[in-house]
Fold this sequence. Notes:
The protein has about 725 residues and is mainly beta. Helix 5 runs antiparallel to helix 6 (about 460-465). The termini are far apart.
Amino acid sequence: xxFYCVKIEHFLKIGTNLMKTNLITTALLLSAxxxxxxxxxxxxxxxxxxxxxxxxxxxxxxxxxVTVLTEKDFLERNATYVSDVLKTVPGVxxxxxxxxxxxxxxxxxxxxxxxxxxxxxxxKMNPVNGRGFDFGGLSLSNIDRIxxxxxxxxxxxxxxxxxxxxDVVPPAVPMDNRVFGDVTLLGKSVxxxxxxxxxxxxxxxxxxxxxxxxxxxFGDYHIPTDSIVYLTQKIPIYGRKLKNTAGIERNIGLxxxxxxxxxxxxxxxSNVYQKxxxxxxxxxIPDASRVEDDGxxxxxxxxxxxxxxxxxxxxxxxxxxxxxxSGDLGFQNNHREEWSAFHTHYGxxxxxxxxxxxxxxxxxxxxxxxxxxxxxxxxxxxxxxxWDGQYQRNDIAGYSFLLPEYHRSTTGMLWLTTYxxxxxxxxxxxxxxxxxxxxxxxxxxxxxxxxxxxxxxxQEQIDLYKWNSHQVKKHYGDYSLSLGLVWTPSDKHLVKVxxxxxxxxxxxxxxxxxxxxxxxxxxxxxxxxxxxxxGWQLDASYHLKYRRISFSVSPFVSWFSNYIFLRPTGEWxxxxxxxxxxxxxxxxxxxxxxxxxxxVDFLRNFNYRISAEYVYTYNCDEHIPxxxxxxPVMRNTLTWQKxxxxxxxxxxxxxxxxxxxRNEDRTAGANLFHLGGSLNIPIGGNNEIEIxxxxxxIFNTRYYNHxxxxxxxxxxxxxxxxxxxxxxxxxxxxx
Length: 735
């Protein structure tokens, strides 16, 4: 270990910042107590989570720091996409490279998106871009709740769960026989979105089924700026609209379940299709002539992307008195194409005879399987034994290159034990071992080699660049451990502590990539010598409930011996219009920070919430911050709710980010203001029409997301946005 990483002055810096956050929240807590009216306490139904132990457990009994988002949260935030609601969770940061439908990544406690596992319908999702799961087209349709587990989760979910887990859970099966459904209508001003969905379902005795279809059409995005700058070149933004960022989305899903006594089986299939334009000034060579206004804000021209994601899952479970057996099978086909008018920077490259404008194509097939056995030894002891495996194959096409062809297989065994001697104390622990194999195909660009030779480069330089990817065959084996404690000394206090060792196997892009990544303005290089990531993480949380006040704080610290990240090197690529070289690098790294929240109910119908988050990152090898570290964020939300009415106002404060890596630009802070409200109108039969209206960034503030690659060309985040959502449910009981 590099002892500079743990020297006192660095911990003092961390401690100082944590103390600042805690002092603020403590002061707010003390001042808020003046609003407390009475000692009345509202009893809430317990919320169970699945993702912590692979079995339903009360969220207060899990050792991990967890946030559960339900349909109530979706409604209050007027969210239509999973990314809309996740970005409001402390410790979570989102980045989208463009408008709706563009690649959207999640950063959990500062860790990059490929360090977080995403679970949907019990199946681990595949990252088609090599950079983690794409949240761009994941809507909230047919989602009951979202579980956000922060910190090390590798003992249960294996590789990629170093930062945490996002578990997306479908709706629960109703108890009574019924025919049900809903119609939803959506509109947004920022890009002229018009959309809707229709769901129909039936529950009859042992059978339960539903089907949903949704579709959205949206136009070019409004942004609060008249121009952007790339390499000192000023590019105008006509009408403050990002040209060619319109798109269309279609989503259809079917779910059916059969349950009889102790046996349960379900089947689901879904398909998501997207076609979204790329802003011409951020794809390929930024040029003012390519962004001239064409008078149509809804057309989709070159360049654009087409994405189709097919997912099929099968789950079976049989429960005895003290033994529960479950198994899952999953198949995913993630097909992504990027189309752009054929262009070459090398001169000698001919246009393909078939589909000459197909720049990139990826076809990733993923097969997954898992088996778990839960043993209930007594009222105090529970054990879980499990196995899971996954096989992936990625094929590529197109006249350009981004990701290599590869196939990868992983398999792992796990053991989890939980001991609850009483309602005060709970101890859990687990161990897991994983084995992985990856085979990456080489890819040579002969036209680039010819170009570099004519430019007079040495043979050594030519050999360095002409291989877009090198052949790599690697075997990996690693283990993970976890130990957690939950202490509930009274109904007012809750303490959680979790420590664990985690790991992650490097991806194909990290090992073998070498080429231009359009839209991010950089040349990416992998390193075939990268080893698997290992790290130790300590996570704690304290919750207080007193009368009408609730307070929570969750400090954490993580140390990685080989943290893999994409770092700006300061080296300029010899490739034309490629920009700076970003290289996948392994380094000893330290993460530390905290999330804190205070909730106060006052004057019967009012609630005030303040939440804050802070992440400190440190490259121990070079004694500098890590690249793409999220800035501190604070949210103040005032909510009024009475009967079927709800109104809220939110002030979101984003701090400056001055702690940056070498060759990385700083980002200014911003203050954003949001307003919203909802109305429920009874229509009979215990049904209510839900109407919500939200105004985001009401002052049209120009600001930049530090985690977005678009800030490099000074493209700000979307401006003022009004959103209207109308949901009309219906149900009829069956005899």
